[in-house]
Amino acid sequence: MPIPARRMALTAFSALAATTLFTAPAGATVFNQGISVHRDAYVAKDGSVTLSGTYHCEQASPTGAMQIKAIVEHGGGRLSIGAEQPVCDGTERRWVATAPGRWVNVHPGHAVVTAELQEVQLSGLMPRSVATVAQDRQNVEVRKH
Questions:
Q1: What gap in Å lies between CA 38 and CA 139, rounded to an integer?
Q2: Coil, strand or helix: which one is 2?
Q3: Segments of the chain scoring below 50 in pLDDT
């Protein structure tokens, strides 16, 4: 019976090793990804709001693309804004996201901004999944622009 017990132990160890290897914490990524939110946001006379920060990322997988999403929470409202397409070459770069005033009622004062660097896995032309690979959430001050 020593052989079956040894096989069972080896099988259990292999399963544990595979679980450890293939189970990563949420938000973990193989590459060095990061994003930050600047502590100041701006609102123009027409009501449009501008959020910004910095990011760095490595190239997405061949079946994926990277995107930046910013969310502003202000006065009981919440708005998601897409930023420009990120350039993923490992260099730290600035991102900017602007929403027209007709979509949001943001005024000077306190707000919370969350920025997410996301990898979109594509299946043909359609997105198959979206994974947040880096996130930052900051209290910001909205200022007149």
A1: 9
A2: helix
A3: 1, 3, 5-30
Helix (H) or strand (E) holding 15: helix 2-22
Backbone angles phi, psi at 20, to 5 degrees: -65, -40
27-144 CATH pick, 2.60.40, 3.30.70, 3.40.50, 2.60.120:
2.60.40
What is residue 5's three-state secondary structure? Answer: helix
Q: First-to-last CA distance in the chain?
A: 78
Strand, coil or helix: 124: coil
Predicted confidence at residue 19, as pLDDT, reads 35
Q: Give the model confidence (pLDDT) of 45-62 as tens digits.
A: 988 999 999 999 987 667
